[in-house]
Specification:
The chain has 20 helices and 2 strands. Strands 1-2 form a two-stranded antiparallel sheet. The chain is mainly α and about 450 residues long. Helix 11 packs parallel to helix 18, helix 12 packs antiparallel against helix 13 and helix 12 packs antiparallel against helix 17.
Protein backbone atom coordinates (compact mmCIF):
# COMPACT_ATOMS: atom_id res chain seq x y z
CA UNK A 1 0.00 0.00 0.00
CA UNK A 2 1.29 3.44 -0.92
CA UNK A 3 0.07 6.96 -0.44
CA UNK A 4 -0.21 8.89 -3.70
CA UNK A 5 -0.06 12.66 -4.21
CA UNK A 6 -3.86 12.88 -4.23
CA UNK A 7 -3.97 11.34 -0.77
CA UNK A 8 -5.50 8.01 -1.87
CA UNK A 9 -4.01 4.68 -0.79
CA UNK A 10 -3.58 2.40 -3.80
CA UNK A 11 -2.79 -1.33 -3.82
CA UNK A 12 -3.18 -4.11 -6.30
CA UNK A 13 -5.25 -7.20 -5.65
CA UNK A 14 -2.40 -8.79 -3.59
CA UNK A 15 -1.90 -5.81 -1.33
CA UNK A 16 1.26 -4.68 -3.17
CA UNK A 17 1.78 -1.07 -4.17
CA UNK A 18 -0.03 -0.24 -7.39
CA UNK A 19 1.52 1.88 -10.12
CA UNK A 20 0.60 5.52 -9.96
CA UNK A 21 -2.59 6.38 -11.83
CA UNK A 22 -1.05 9.59 -13.02
CA UNK A 23 1.26 7.80 -15.43
CA UNK A 24 -0.35 4.39 -15.51
CA UNK A 25 3.05 2.58 -15.21
CA UNK A 26 5.42 4.06 -12.63
CA UNK A 27 5.96 6.61 -9.89
CA UNK A 28 3.72 9.63 -9.63
CA UNK A 29 4.32 12.31 -12.21
CA UNK A 30 6.68 15.09 -11.26
CA UNK A 31 5.08 18.21 -9.83
CA UNK A 32 6.88 20.16 -12.52
CA UNK A 33 4.65 18.75 -15.24
CA UNK A 34 2.26 21.28 -16.80
CA UNK A 35 -0.76 21.63 -14.56
CA UNK A 36 -3.31 21.60 -17.32
CA UNK A 37 -2.24 18.13 -18.46
CA UNK A 38 -2.73 16.55 -15.04
CA UNK A 39 -5.97 14.96 -13.96
CA UNK A 40 -7.53 16.82 -11.09
CA UNK A 41 -9.42 15.72 -8.03
CA UNK A 42 -12.73 17.20 -6.97
CA UNK A 43 -12.87 20.99 -7.03
CA UNK A 44 -12.97 22.84 -3.69
CA UNK A 45 -16.48 23.24 -2.35
CA UNK A 46 -16.30 27.03 -2.57
CA UNK A 47 -15.35 26.81 -6.27
CA UNK A 48 -18.30 24.53 -7.03
CA UNK A 49 -20.68 26.99 -5.36
CA UNK A 50 -19.24 29.93 -7.27
CA UNK A 51 -19.47 27.98 -10.53
CA UNK A 52 -23.17 27.37 -9.81
CA UNK A 53 -23.71 31.12 -9.43
CA UNK A 54 -21.65 31.77 -12.55
CA UNK A 55 -23.67 29.21 -14.49
CA UNK A 56 -26.94 30.96 -13.69
CA UNK A 57 -25.60 34.46 -14.43
CA UNK A 58 -24.06 33.26 -17.68
CA UNK A 59 -27.38 31.72 -18.72
CA UNK A 60 -29.23 34.95 -17.99
CA UNK A 61 -26.65 36.80 -20.11
CA UNK A 62 -26.65 34.58 -23.21
CA UNK A 63 -29.79 35.90 -24.96
CA UNK A 64 -30.49 39.59 -24.11
CA UNK A 65 -28.03 40.67 -26.82
CA UNK A 66 -30.44 39.04 -29.29
CA UNK A 67 -33.93 39.29 -27.82
CA UNK A 68 -33.52 42.93 -26.69
CA UNK A 69 -32.79 43.97 -30.27
CA UNK A 70 -36.16 43.23 -31.90
CA UNK A 71 -38.33 45.63 -29.85
CA UNK A 72 -35.96 48.54 -30.66
CA UNK A 73 -35.03 47.61 -34.24
CA UNK A 74 -37.24 50.29 -35.81
CA UNK A 75 -35.56 53.06 -33.78
CA UNK A 76 -32.10 51.63 -34.41
CA UNK A 77 -32.67 51.49 -38.18
CA UNK A 78 -33.92 55.07 -38.27
CA UNK A 79 -31.00 56.43 -36.25
CA UNK A 80 -28.22 54.51 -38.02
CA UNK A 81 -29.71 54.60 -41.51
CA UNK A 82 -29.76 50.81 -41.60
CA UNK A 83 -31.19 49.28 -44.77
CA UNK A 84 -33.89 46.63 -44.76
CA UNK A 85 -31.41 44.08 -46.09
CA UNK A 86 -29.00 44.69 -43.21
CA UNK A 87 -31.86 44.59 -40.71
CA UNK A 88 -32.87 41.24 -42.16
CA UNK A 89 -29.28 40.07 -41.90
CA UNK A 90 -29.35 40.80 -38.19
CA UNK A 91 -31.94 38.04 -37.72
CA UNK A 92 -29.60 35.46 -39.30
CA UNK A 93 -26.32 36.68 -37.79
CA UNK A 94 -26.83 34.99 -34.38
CA UNK A 95 -27.12 31.50 -35.86
CA UNK A 96 -24.16 32.14 -38.20
CA UNK A 97 -22.00 33.41 -35.33
CA UNK A 98 -23.02 30.52 -33.09
CA UNK A 99 -21.91 28.08 -35.79
CA UNK A 100 -18.67 29.87 -36.71
CA UNK A 101 -17.36 30.93 -33.30
CA UNK A 102 -18.77 27.92 -31.45
CA UNK A 103 -16.51 25.64 -33.48
CA UNK A 104 -13.49 27.35 -31.88
CA UNK A 105 -14.53 26.38 -28.36
CA UNK A 106 -12.97 22.87 -28.27
CA UNK A 107 -9.51 24.11 -29.21
CA UNK A 108 -9.68 26.98 -26.73
CA UNK A 109 -10.96 24.75 -23.91
CA UNK A 110 -8.29 22.14 -24.66
CA UNK A 111 -5.54 24.75 -24.32
CA UNK A 112 -6.87 26.82 -21.44
CA UNK A 113 -9.59 24.83 -19.73
CA UNK A 114 -13.33 25.63 -19.89
CA UNK A 115 -13.47 28.17 -17.05
CA UNK A 116 -10.99 30.69 -18.55
CA UNK A 117 -12.76 30.45 -21.91
CA UNK A 118 -16.18 31.07 -20.36
CA UNK A 119 -14.67 34.01 -18.47
CA UNK A 120 -13.36 35.42 -21.78
CA UNK A 121 -16.78 34.82 -23.32
CA UNK A 122 -18.47 36.85 -20.59
CA UNK A 123 -15.95 39.66 -21.11
CA UNK A 124 -16.66 39.63 -24.87
CA UNK A 125 -20.42 39.81 -24.26
CA UNK A 126 -20.10 42.71 -21.83
CA UNK A 127 -17.73 44.55 -24.19
CA UNK A 128 -20.02 44.05 -27.18
CA UNK A 129 -23.08 45.22 -25.27
CA UNK A 130 -21.17 48.27 -24.05
CA UNK A 131 -19.83 49.23 -27.48
CA UNK A 132 -23.02 48.63 -29.46
CA UNK A 133 -24.91 51.72 -28.17
CA UNK A 134 -21.84 53.85 -28.91
CA UNK A 135 -21.86 52.90 -32.59
CA UNK A 136 -22.16 55.80 -34.98
CA UNK A 137 -22.95 53.70 -38.04
CA UNK A 138 -24.16 50.32 -39.24
CA UNK A 139 -20.68 48.79 -39.61
CA UNK A 140 -19.67 49.61 -36.03
CA UNK A 141 -23.03 48.33 -34.75
CA UNK A 142 -22.59 45.01 -36.58
CA UNK A 143 -18.99 44.66 -35.35
CA UNK A 144 -20.01 45.22 -31.72
CA UNK A 145 -22.88 42.77 -32.15
CA UNK A 146 -20.49 40.18 -33.61
CA UNK A 147 -18.18 40.58 -30.59
CA UNK A 148 -21.04 39.90 -28.17
CA UNK A 149 -22.27 36.98 -30.29
CA UNK A 150 -18.77 35.46 -30.36
CA UNK A 151 -18.75 35.45 -26.56
CA UNK A 152 -22.22 33.90 -26.54
CA UNK A 153 -21.18 31.24 -29.07
CA UNK A 154 -18.19 29.85 -27.13
CA UNK A 155 -20.14 30.03 -23.85
CA UNK A 156 -23.08 28.19 -25.44
CA UNK A 157 -20.81 25.31 -26.35
CA UNK A 158 -19.06 25.15 -22.97
CA UNK A 159 -22.08 25.31 -20.67
CA UNK A 160 -22.76 21.53 -20.96
CA UNK A 161 -19.03 21.01 -20.37
CA UNK A 162 -19.16 23.08 -17.18
CA UNK A 163 -22.11 20.99 -15.98
CA UNK A 164 -20.35 17.71 -16.81
CA UNK A 165 -17.12 18.77 -15.11
CA UNK A 166 -18.27 20.45 -11.90
CA UNK A 167 -21.61 18.67 -11.37
CA UNK A 168 -21.20 15.12 -12.76
CA UNK A 169 -23.77 13.67 -10.36
CA UNK A 170 -26.30 16.48 -10.92
CA UNK A 171 -26.35 16.81 -14.69
CA UNK A 172 -30.15 16.96 -14.90
CA UNK A 173 -30.74 19.52 -12.16
CA UNK A 174 -27.89 21.83 -13.18
CA UNK A 175 -28.80 21.66 -16.87
CA UNK A 176 -32.34 22.52 -15.80
CA UNK A 177 -31.12 25.48 -13.76
CA UNK A 178 -29.05 26.74 -16.70
CA UNK A 179 -31.93 26.23 -19.16
CA UNK A 180 -34.33 28.03 -16.84
CA UNK A 181 -31.93 30.99 -16.63
CA UNK A 182 -31.61 31.02 -20.40
CA UNK A 183 -35.39 31.10 -20.88
CA UNK A 184 -35.79 33.76 -18.20
CA UNK A 185 -33.11 35.97 -19.75
CA UNK A 186 -34.73 35.65 -23.17
CA UNK A 187 -38.22 36.48 -21.95
CA UNK A 188 -37.14 39.34 -19.69
CA UNK A 189 -35.08 41.05 -22.37
CA UNK A 190 -38.01 40.90 -24.81
CA UNK A 191 -40.52 42.16 -22.25
CA UNK A 192 -38.48 44.73 -20.29
CA UNK A 193 -36.37 46.46 -22.94
CA UNK A 194 -39.02 48.91 -24.20
CA UNK A 195 -40.30 49.97 -20.73
CA UNK A 196 -36.70 50.29 -19.54
CA UNK A 197 -35.87 52.43 -22.59
CA UNK A 198 -38.82 54.72 -21.84
CA UNK A 199 -37.75 55.01 -18.20
CA UNK A 200 -34.20 55.96 -19.28
CA UNK A 201 -35.37 58.83 -21.49
CA UNK A 202 -36.53 57.06 -24.62
CA UNK A 203 -33.14 56.58 -26.29
CA UNK A 204 -32.57 53.14 -27.79
CA UNK A 205 -28.89 53.53 -26.92
CA UNK A 206 -29.66 53.72 -23.20
CA UNK A 207 -32.18 50.89 -23.33
CA UNK A 208 -29.89 48.58 -25.27
CA UNK A 209 -26.76 49.56 -23.32
CA UNK A 210 -28.37 48.85 -19.97
CA UNK A 211 -27.99 45.13 -20.61
CA UNK A 212 -24.20 45.57 -20.43
CA UNK A 213 -24.62 45.78 -16.64
CA UNK A 214 -25.86 42.20 -16.63
CA UNK A 215 -22.83 41.29 -18.72
CA UNK A 216 -20.45 42.83 -16.20
CA UNK A 217 -22.24 41.03 -13.37
CA UNK A 218 -21.77 37.71 -15.15
CA UNK A 219 -18.00 38.26 -15.33
CA UNK A 220 -17.51 38.42 -11.57
CA UNK A 221 -18.10 34.79 -10.47
CA UNK A 222 -15.93 33.45 -13.29
CA UNK A 223 -13.10 35.76 -12.25
CA UNK A 224 -13.38 34.28 -8.75
CA UNK A 225 -13.44 30.70 -10.09
CA UNK A 226 -10.11 31.32 -11.82
CA UNK A 227 -8.50 31.70 -8.39
CA UNK A 228 -8.81 27.93 -8.07
CA UNK A 229 -5.79 26.46 -9.97
CA UNK A 230 -7.87 23.41 -10.86
CA UNK A 231 -10.22 25.54 -12.94
CA UNK A 232 -7.52 25.82 -15.61
CA UNK A 233 -7.26 22.07 -16.05
CA UNK A 234 -9.03 20.49 -18.97
CA UNK A 235 -10.37 17.52 -17.02
CA UNK A 236 -11.69 17.13 -13.48
CA UNK A 237 -13.00 13.65 -12.68
CA UNK A 238 -15.45 12.97 -9.91
CA UNK A 239 -13.91 11.39 -6.85
CA UNK A 240 -10.34 12.18 -7.82
CA UNK A 241 -9.92 9.04 -9.94
CA UNK A 242 -6.89 10.08 -11.99
CA UNK A 243 -6.67 6.77 -13.86
CA UNK A 244 -10.29 7.05 -14.99
CA UNK A 245 -9.73 10.65 -16.05
CA UNK A 246 -6.63 9.81 -18.07
CA UNK A 247 -8.43 6.94 -19.79
CA UNK A 248 -11.51 9.06 -20.55
CA UNK A 249 -9.44 11.96 -21.86
CA UNK A 250 -7.38 9.59 -23.99
CA UNK A 251 -10.57 8.15 -25.47
CA UNK A 252 -11.88 11.65 -26.15
CA UNK A 253 -8.67 12.59 -28.00
CA UNK A 254 -9.23 9.69 -30.39
CA UNK A 255 -12.87 10.48 -31.12
CA UNK A 256 -13.71 11.03 -34.78
CA UNK A 257 -16.76 13.12 -34.06
CA UNK A 258 -17.87 13.33 -37.69
CA UNK A 259 -17.97 9.53 -37.93
CA UNK A 260 -20.29 9.07 -34.94
CA UNK A 261 -23.96 8.36 -35.82
CA UNK A 262 -24.95 9.52 -32.34
CA UNK A 263 -23.18 12.86 -32.81
CA UNK A 264 -24.92 13.40 -36.15
CA UNK A 265 -28.32 12.46 -34.75
CA UNK A 266 -27.81 14.88 -31.89
CA UNK A 267 -26.63 17.65 -34.24
CA UNK A 268 -29.67 17.28 -36.49
CA UNK A 269 -32.00 17.08 -33.49
CA UNK A 270 -30.43 20.24 -32.05
CA UNK A 271 -30.74 22.06 -35.37
CA UNK A 272 -34.37 21.09 -35.95
CA UNK A 273 -35.45 22.09 -32.44
CA UNK A 274 -33.64 25.43 -32.87
CA UNK A 275 -35.37 25.95 -36.21
CA UNK A 276 -38.77 25.23 -34.61
CA UNK A 277 -38.04 27.70 -31.81
CA UNK A 278 -37.03 30.44 -34.27
CA UNK A 279 -40.14 29.78 -36.39
CA UNK A 280 -42.41 30.06 -33.37
CA UNK A 281 -40.63 33.15 -32.10
CA UNK A 282 -40.80 34.88 -35.47
CA UNK A 283 -44.13 33.77 -36.90
CA UNK A 284 -46.54 32.64 -34.16
CA UNK A 285 -47.89 36.16 -33.43
CA UNK A 286 -48.50 36.69 -37.16
CA UNK A 287 -50.42 33.41 -37.40
CA UNK A 288 -52.67 34.53 -34.57
CA UNK A 289 -53.13 38.02 -35.98
CA UNK A 290 -54.04 36.67 -39.42
CA UNK A 291 -56.70 34.59 -37.66
CA UNK A 292 -58.26 37.73 -36.15
CA UNK A 293 -56.53 37.81 -32.77
CA UNK A 294 -55.59 41.31 -31.59
CA UNK A 295 -51.95 42.41 -31.61
CA UNK A 296 -51.81 42.70 -27.83
CA UNK A 297 -53.33 39.23 -27.32
CA UNK A 298 -50.98 37.71 -29.89
CA UNK A 299 -48.03 39.20 -28.02
CA UNK A 300 -49.29 37.80 -24.73
CA UNK A 301 -49.69 34.37 -26.30
CA UNK A 302 -46.10 34.45 -27.52
CA UNK A 303 -45.04 35.44 -24.00
CA UNK A 304 -46.92 32.39 -22.67
CA UNK A 305 -45.16 30.15 -25.20
CA UNK A 306 -41.73 31.50 -24.30
CA UNK A 307 -42.55 31.67 -20.58
CA UNK A 308 -43.38 27.96 -20.42
CA UNK A 309 -39.68 27.33 -20.76
CA UNK A 310 -38.93 28.90 -17.38
CA UNK A 311 -40.54 26.32 -15.04
CA UNK A 312 -40.35 23.36 -17.42
CA UNK A 313 -36.69 23.91 -18.25
CA UNK A 314 -35.86 23.05 -14.64
CA UNK A 315 -38.03 19.92 -14.53
CA UNK A 316 -37.52 18.36 -17.97
CA UNK A 317 -33.69 17.96 -17.85
CA UNK A 318 -33.89 16.26 -14.44
CA UNK A 319 -36.37 13.81 -15.91
CA UNK A 320 -34.20 13.28 -19.00
CA UNK A 321 -31.09 12.61 -16.90
CA UNK A 322 -32.88 9.83 -15.00
CA UNK A 323 -33.88 8.03 -18.19
CA UNK A 324 -31.60 5.52 -19.89
CA UNK A 325 -33.25 6.39 -23.20
CA UNK A 326 -34.58 9.92 -23.71
CA UNK A 327 -36.59 8.87 -26.77
CA UNK A 328 -39.98 8.62 -24.99
CA UNK A 329 -39.57 12.15 -23.65
CA UNK A 330 -38.70 13.44 -27.13
CA UNK A 331 -41.81 11.74 -28.53
CA UNK A 332 -44.03 13.28 -25.83
CA UNK A 333 -42.72 16.77 -26.60
CA UNK A 334 -43.16 16.14 -30.32
CA UNK A 335 -46.79 15.11 -29.83
CA UNK A 336 -47.44 18.36 -27.95
CA UNK A 337 -45.98 20.31 -30.87
CA UNK A 338 -47.94 18.39 -33.50
CA UNK A 339 -51.16 18.93 -31.55
CA UNK A 340 -50.38 22.65 -31.39
CA UNK A 341 -49.78 22.81 -35.15
CA UNK A 342 -53.00 20.88 -35.80
CA UNK A 343 -54.84 23.40 -33.64
CA UNK A 344 -53.35 26.30 -35.60
CA UNK A 345 -54.60 24.61 -38.79
CA UNK A 346 -58.14 23.86 -37.57
CA UNK A 347 -59.00 26.65 -35.10
CA UNK A 348 -56.15 29.15 -34.73
CA UNK A 349 -58.26 31.75 -32.91
CA UNK A 350 -60.71 29.48 -31.08
CA UNK A 351 -58.10 27.57 -29.09
CA UNK A 352 -55.25 30.07 -29.35
CA UNK A 353 -54.26 29.96 -25.68
CA UNK A 354 -54.15 26.15 -25.68
CA UNK A 355 -52.04 26.04 -28.85
CA UNK A 356 -49.62 28.58 -27.36
CA UNK A 357 -49.34 26.45 -24.23
CA UNK A 358 -48.68 23.22 -26.15
CA UNK A 359 -46.05 24.85 -28.36
CA UNK A 360 -44.33 26.19 -25.24
CA UNK A 361 -44.11 22.63 -23.91
CA UNK A 362 -42.74 21.41 -27.25
CA UNK A 363 -40.01 24.06 -27.06
CA UNK A 364 -38.54 22.17 -24.09
CA UNK A 365 -36.72 20.01 -26.63
CA UNK A 366 -33.88 22.52 -26.18
CA UNK A 367 -33.01 21.60 -22.57
CA UNK A 368 -33.43 17.93 -23.49
CA UNK A 369 -30.81 18.39 -26.24
CA UNK A 370 -28.44 20.07 -23.78
CA UNK A 371 -28.89 17.23 -21.31
CA UNK A 372 -28.18 14.62 -23.97
CA UNK A 373 -24.97 16.42 -24.94
CA UNK A 374 -23.73 15.95 -21.36
CA UNK A 375 -24.83 12.30 -21.26
CA UNK A 376 -23.44 11.09 -24.59
CA UNK A 377 -19.76 11.23 -23.57
CA UNK A 378 -17.76 9.83 -20.65
CA UNK A 379 -15.49 12.85 -20.20
CA UNK A 380 -15.48 16.63 -20.24
CA UNK A 381 -13.13 16.56 -23.23
CA UNK A 382 -15.63 14.42 -25.13
CA UNK A 383 -18.49 16.73 -24.18
CA UNK A 384 -16.50 19.70 -25.53
CA UNK A 385 -16.18 18.01 -28.91
CA UNK A 386 -19.78 16.84 -28.99
CA UNK A 387 -21.19 20.18 -27.84
CA UNK A 388 -19.21 22.12 -30.43
CA UNK A 389 -20.17 19.72 -33.21
CA UNK A 390 -23.85 19.47 -32.31
CA UNK A 391 -24.36 23.19 -31.75
CA UNK A 392 -22.27 24.47 -34.67
CA UNK A 393 -23.83 22.03 -37.13
CA UNK A 394 -27.27 22.45 -35.59
CA UNK A 395 -27.33 26.23 -35.77
CA UNK A 396 -26.33 26.09 -39.44
CA UNK A 397 -29.20 23.67 -40.09
CA UNK A 398 -31.63 25.98 -38.27
CA UNK A 399 -31.14 28.97 -40.61
CA UNK A 400 -33.38 27.97 -43.58
CA UNK A 401 -36.49 27.04 -41.56
CA UNK A 402 -37.82 30.50 -40.62
CA UNK A 403 -36.96 31.83 -44.09
CA UNK A 404 -38.85 29.00 -45.83
CA UNK A 405 -41.91 29.60 -43.67
CA UNK A 406 -42.00 33.24 -44.81
CA UNK A 407 -41.53 32.31 -48.47
CA UNK A 408 -44.28 29.68 -48.34
CA UNK A 409 -46.62 32.08 -46.56
CA UNK A 410 -46.19 34.68 -49.31
CA UNK A 411 -46.42 32.10 -52.13
CA UNK A 412 -49.52 30.29 -50.82
CA UNK A 413 -51.33 33.27 -49.31
CA UNK A 414 -52.13 31.37 -46.12
CA UNK A 415 -50.71 29.29 -43.31
CA UNK A 416 -51.71 25.74 -44.29
CA UNK A 417 -48.64 25.06 -46.44
CA UNK A 418 -46.18 26.57 -43.90
CA UNK A 419 -47.85 24.51 -41.16
CA UNK A 420 -47.29 21.35 -43.21
CA UNK A 421 -43.60 22.25 -43.41
CA UNK A 422 -43.48 22.92 -39.67
CA UNK A 423 -45.13 19.58 -38.92
CA UNK A 424 -42.73 17.76 -41.25
CA UNK A 425 -39.72 19.35 -39.56
CA UNK A 426 -41.12 18.37 -36.16
CA UNK A 427 -41.54 14.75 -37.26
CA UNK A 428 -37.91 14.70 -38.41
CA UNK A 429 -36.89 16.31 -35.12
CA UNK A 430 -38.69 13.61 -33.15
CA UNK A 431 -37.10 10.80 -35.17
CA UNK A 432 -33.56 12.14 -34.80
CA UNK A 433 -34.21 12.87 -31.12
CA UNK A 434 -35.13 9.22 -30.55
CA UNK A 435 -31.90 8.15 -32.26
CA UNK A 436 -29.83 10.65 -30.26
CA UNK A 437 -31.49 9.59 -27.01
CA UNK A 438 -30.25 5.99 -27.11
CA UNK A 439 -28.04 4.90 -24.20
CA UNK A 440 -24.62 5.09 -25.82
CA UNK A 441 -21.52 7.31 -25.80
CA UNK A 442 -19.46 8.69 -28.66
CA UNK A 443 -16.25 7.14 -27.32
CA UNK A 444 -17.60 3.75 -28.42
CA UNK A 445 -17.72 4.93 -32.04
CA UNK A 446 -21.50 4.76 -32.22
Amino acid sequence: MVMTEDGLKRTDGNGKPRASAASGRGPARSRRAPVRHEAAGPAPRWAVRVVAVGLVLAALNLRPAISALGPLLKEIRGDLGMSGAVAGLLTSVPALCFAAFGSLAPRLARRRGPAPVVFAGMVAIAAGLTLRPLAGGTAAFLAASALALAGIAVSNVLMPVVVKRWFPSRIGSMTGLYSMGLALGTACAAAVTVPMTDALGGSWRAGLGAWALLGVLAILPWAVVLKDPGSRRTEAPAGGDSAAASTAEGEAARIRIGASPTAWALAVFFGLQASAAYIILGWLPQIFRDAGVSASSAGLMLAVTMGMGVPLAFVVPRLAARMRHQGPLVVALGLCGLTGYAGLWLAPAGGAWLWALLLGIANCAFPVALTMISLRSRSSAGVVKLSAFAQSTGYLLSIPGPLLVGVLRDASGGWHVPLLLMAGLLLAQTLTGVLAGRDRVIEDGR
